[in-house]
Amino acid sequence: MPIVPDLDPDVEGAITRVHKISAHLRKVKERALADGDLHVHEYDTLQALGGRDGRAAPSQLAADLGIAPNSVTGRLDGLSARGFVLRTPSELDRRRVIVELTEEGRAAWLGAMGAQGVEEHRILEALDPDERRLLSDLLRRVMIRADER
């Protein structure tokens, strides 16, 4: 008889494994960022900018990152000082700026992302392509349920 009678070992096993995989990937990300001399907030900002084809207004980045616009300004100041982004006046409204990812910024972002991607592929190679697709679909369905709250 189980120690906790209402405990479903399949539920507990799945959740425990998701936590362990997440922790493992977090460590890989931290290592990749340290190797690339990037802070998490810098990487996240470069990622958000890269997801917008390397060009966005600060207000768009703030919305994408879920942070206050003045917080984006501070992040952009640091990234600009490192040569990772360039601010240019908007062609439509000179009071606004557009932030662009520089080649150096793109290289830093892709370098960190590439190291993470290698590990993601390595661990998921335990599954064949059909199993990976099924796992992705199953996790999507679980996330939809989680988002219902």
What does the model show?
The chain is mainly alpha-helical and 149 residues long. The protein has one domain (9-147): Orthogonal Bundle (Arc Repressor Mutant, subunit A). Helix content is 67%, strand content 8%. A 3-stranded antiparallel beta sheet has the order 1-3-2. A hairpin with a 7-residue loop joins strand 2 and strand 3. The longest helix has 27 residues, at 9-35.
Number of helices: 6
Our estimate of the beta-strand percent is 5-15%
Identify low-pLDDT runs: none
The domain tally reads 1
In total, how many beta strands?
A: 3
The CATH homology group name: Winged helix-like DNA-binding domain superfamily/Winged helix DNA-binding domain
CATH architecture: Orthogonal Bundle
CATH fold naming: Arc Repressor Mutant, subunit A
Indicate the structural class.
Answer: mainly alpha
Q: What top-tier CATH class fits best?
A: Mainly Alpha
**SSE order:** HHEHHEEHH
Describe the strand arrangement of the main beta sheet, using strand numbers: 1-3-2
> Considering DSSP H and I runs of 4 or more, what fraction of the residues is helical?
55-70%
